[in-house]
Design a protein that fits this description.
Chain A: Pfam families: Skp1, Skp1_POZ. The complex is a heterodimer of chains A (174) and B (394). Chain A has 174 residues and is mainly alpha-helical. Chain A folds into two domains: 117 residues, Potassium Channel Kv1.1, Chain A (2-Layer Sandwich); 36 residues, no CATH class. Chain A is 56% helix and 7% strand. Chain A contains nine helices and three strands. A three-stranded mixed sheet of chain A has the order 2-1-3. With 394 residues, chain B is mainly beta. Chain B has a domain of 52 residues. Chain B is 11% helix and 37% strand. The longest helix of chain B has 10 residues. Chain B is globular and about 75 Å long. The chains are: A mainly alpha (174), B mainly beta (394).
């Protein structure tokens, strides 16, 4: 790790904040990690979330929140370094490995994650999940995309509509 | 936003891609590769997705994600098949069952029309008897026929160049904007004449050749068989002698500059004419590339106050560093064993044919990759680049 001290915060005593999920589970987490969320950052800068208060997150359930926080804790040190200009190649490779494994999960969890990342404005996580979902569908035919995403097979009407669209595209995509 | 929030609350298991709000879906789709085949598949998947990918806001976001640099979709050429689809910069077999694997086939009705060039998603063609020009946007199926200037005599050699109107930096949307055609021909007395068509006025304007005193009429006739290049608002065209004609398409000012020494067919046979090319290096105003069986050489023009002063050699690279050549290639002969067959002005990529196939040489990065493994692709190709454009978008 590039700077073990920075992970523990200044002077060894990191400021902690409490986040409360929609199903009332309390998560205590370092302010630096929670601040990856643009939304939470403002509240935290105002001194919120400390002590017994906690920040309620009515849109995020506990399972999703714990996953979101797992991401934030891992990425907080690099983010604190201002995008980690001095991060070593090893650090970057480790983060990349973490990211790849992190999104290797069920689709429904991915969608919950991207919604949470969107609502909490965690740019890196939004981008990571969006890229993952894009990778799942890229290179597939429309029917394969439907199957990958668990859509029902098209009704005859939908099929006819798709065929009509196909024709509209002219020569370029026959 | 309220609706989006409420979706998160109940059972997570029911969350599917279609239930995500539109801006999140846009975020996801904007991360697909730039090649239009990918968005086309999305648009055919279901009605909801279709609505998103035809949304101009989404298309802007998508282009921004890809730095407004459209990907290579294929090569247009004057032989059959007239369109060679590419994915990831390499020619792929067209396969109707695999929409993504094969980008499709160009089916121009005007099969005997001659492709003169492509720019920013549009293709310029000329009919064999040279009386008409045609501007096609194959992605949206738009075609516009234009009469050659009435003062043009068909027996005169001619070429034409498609340019945007006016010249501008951002080409993301320029295919829906007006265009111009610079029509160059030379008459008896070897006078080069230039006319410009504007799609806004649907009119040709003729620019008279200034008659200069002296024994030789200037400017020199341009070489209609060799590609020109547009840099900013100046069009550079090879003449049939040792000069380059510089024509400002906005002010119509024109003058000639010499070609770098030692590269001319007539002077010495060191470099065949087909293997010289005007290029636009990222960090120079104008470049001149020459290719032999052994090396690539780039000259750059030193400009001061818009006036060309001299050519400076920029680099000299052994060809085998970029293109794997068969052993028996030696001295240049009448039939080159390597030849320039295509040029992407905006990307500064030159396409070289060799017995080992066709290679793309990225001149700024000094990198190359194989585009096509078959040596039969020897004729000129016109790289066609475009983002996804849904039909009916104007």
């Amino acid at each position: 790790m590039a700077a073990p001290e920075s992970g523990d915060g200044n002077n060894g005593a990191a400021r902690m904040v409490t986040l409360i999920s929609s199903d009332n589970t309390r998560f205590e987490v370092e302010a630096a990690a929670a601040s990856l969320s643009q939304t939470l950052q403002l509240t935290i800068l105002d001194g919120g979330g400390g002590g017994g208060d906690g920040i309620p997150l009515p849109n995020v359930d506990s399972a999703t929140l714990s996953k979101v926080l797992e991401y934030c804790i891992k990425h907080a040190p690099a983010a604190a370094n201002g995008g980690a200009p001095n991060a070593t190649a090893v650090d970057r490779a480790e983060l990349e490995r973490f990211d790849n494994e992190f999104v290797n999960i069920d689709q429904s969890v991915l969608y919950s994650l991207i919604m949470a990342a969107h609502n909490l404005e965690i740019e890196g996580l939004q981008s990571l999940v969006a890229k993952k979902v894009a990778d799942m569908i890229k290179g597939k035919s429309p029917m394969e995309i439907r199957r990958t995403l668990g859509f029902p097979d098209p009704t005859p009407e939908e099929q006819a509509e798709m065929n009509a669209h196909m024709l509209e595209y002219g020569w370029a995509y026959e | 936003m309220g609706a989006a929030h409420s979706r998160l609350l109940p059972e997570r298991q029911s969350l599917s891609l279609t239930s995500l709000p539109e801006n999140v879906l846009m975020e996801i789709f904007s991360r697909l590769p730039a090649h239009p085949a990918f968005l086309r598949c999305i648009s055919l998947t279901c009605k909801e997705f279709h609505q998103i990918v035809v949304n101009p806001d989404f298309l802007r976001l998508f282009r921004a994600h890809h730095r407004d640099t459209p990907p290579l979709v294929g090569f247009i050429r004057n032989q059959s098949p007239r369109f060679l689809p590419t994915i990831g910069g390499a020619v792929v077999q067209y396969d109707p069952d695999r929409v993504v694997a094969g980008a499709g086939a160009l089916e121009l009705d005007d099969a005997d029309w001659i492709v003169l060039g492509c720019r920013h998603g549009r293709v310029l063609l000329q009919c064999p008897e040279r009386r008409y020009l045609l501007v096609v946007d194959p992605m949206v199926g738009r075609r516009e026929y234009i009469d050659a200037p009435s003062w043009y005599r068909l027996r005169h050699s001619s070429t034409a160049v498609l340019i945007c109107s006016p010249c501008h930096g951002d080409h993301g949307d320029c295919r829906s904007r007006p265009f111009r055609i610079v029509f160059v021909y030379f008459s008896v007395a070897f006078m080069t004449n230039i006319s410009i068509y504007s799609s806004q006025t649907d009119q040709w304007v003729k620019f008279q050749t200034p008659r200069l005193p002296g024994p030789l009429p200037l400017p020199n006739p341009i070489d209609t068989s060799r590609p020109s290049i547009l840099i900013g608002n100046v069009l550079y065209l090879f003449t049939i002698f040792t000069t380059v004609l510089c024509f400002n398409v906005d002010t119509q000012e024109r003058h000639e500059i010499p070609q770098p020494p030692g590269n001319h067919y007539i002077e010495r046979r060191a470099v065949l004419r087909v293997n010289t090319l005007l290029v636009a290096p990222r960090d120079a105003s104008l470049g001149f590339l020459s290719v032999t069986s052994c090396y690539l050489k780039l000259w750059v023009s030193n400009f001061a106050d818009g006036v060309h002063l001299q050519w400076t050699p920029r680099w000299f690279v052994s060809l085998d560093a970029l293109v794997p050549l068969p052993e028996d290639i030696a001295e240049p002969t009448q039939m080159p064993k390597i030849r320039i067959i295509g040029h992407d002005e905006d990307g500064n990529v030159v396409y070289l044919w060799s017995l080992a196939g066709v290679f793309a040489i990225h001149l700024d990065e000094m990198q190359s990759h194989q585009v096509f493994s078959n040596y039969q692709l020897i004729h000129r190709v016109y790289p066609y680049k475009s983002f996804f454009l849904p039909p009916g978008i104007s």
